[in-house]
Amino acid sequence: MSAVWFEEAFRADYRAVYPHRDLEAARPEVRWLVEHGVRGRTLDLCCGFGRHTLLLRDAGVDVFGLDLSADLLAAASTLPNAERHLAGRLVRADARELPFARASFGSLVNLFSSFGYFGELGDERVLAEIGRVLRPGGLAAFDLMNPPFVRANLRDETTREGEDFLLRERRSLADGGRRVIKDVELVRNGDSRRWREDVRLYELDELRPKLATHGLAVHATFGGFASEPASATAPRLLLLATRA
């Protein structure tokens, strides 16, 4: 049985292929999150190799990171001061079944388009788990693709080369523009592999009732980490929601 796309995509070569997704890029995002209420015992849901987790720890947040990719979690050990800041704080698990008790976190962050991977029912399970592990009054922060911006600015095909890789990405929309598909070919050190990414785009008006079903009320929206207003032309869709 072949792996699902997110198991293929987030492998050991992720950091080499996307070197710009690093600590420096994460610093202003973490600063914004702390300024907007992320504090106390916090879960970095779909943390990847832990760049936001590490910086949240640096900011004094009692944060734990969770991801499904064993490769990316292993790569966290290469971050500066990882042994001191991240030891015992990274967990491998599925976002649809969080290994934490009810109401065990005061904050939760889900960053860098890490929602919409599991289909409608699977995505509902993720939201249910977020609602379950947040304490009453807790904060959930989501950093999502902005559907109208994606549809208006989608680049059909891009090619990028590095010292030891060639990356080709072909993008398209499906399901009436509700899903963005990316066919990826990575050639690295003479080896080639391909996978297809398939992410559901959620409009704000779709997310509000879904979140409300699980006790989460949206209280603020933004178009990016510079606190731009949320709009059709904003590059991102940031949501802050409070657990009832």
Concise summary:
The chain has 244 residues and is of the alpha/beta class.
Commentary on this structure:
The protein has 244 residues and is of the alpha/beta class. The protein has two domains: 5-146 and 202-243, 3-Layer(aba) Sandwich (Rossmann fold); 149-197, no CATH class. Helix content is 30%, strand content 34%. It contains nine helices and eleven strands. The chain has helices spanning 5-9, 14-17, 23-35, 51-58, 70-75, 82-86, 119-133, 147-153, 204-213; strands spanning 41-45, 62-67, 90-92, 105-110, 134-145, 157-161, 165-174, 179-188, 191-200, 216-222, 236-243. Helix 3 packs across helix 4. The N and C termini lie far apart (41 Å). The model has no long low-confidence stretch (mean pLDDT 96).
Radius of gyration: 17 Å
Helix and strand content put the structural class at alpha/beta
Q: What is the annotated CATH architecture of the largest domain?
A: 3-Layer(aba) Sandwich
Query: Looking across the biggest beta sheet, what order are the strands in?
Result: 3-2-1-4-5-11-10
> In angstroms, what separates the terminal alpha carbons?
41 Å
Provide a count of the helices: 9
Number of strands: 11
How many structural domains are formed by the residues? 2
Main pleated-sheet profile? 7 strands, mixed
Average predicted confidence as pLDDT? 96
CATH class group of the largest domain: Alpha Beta
Helix content: 25-40%
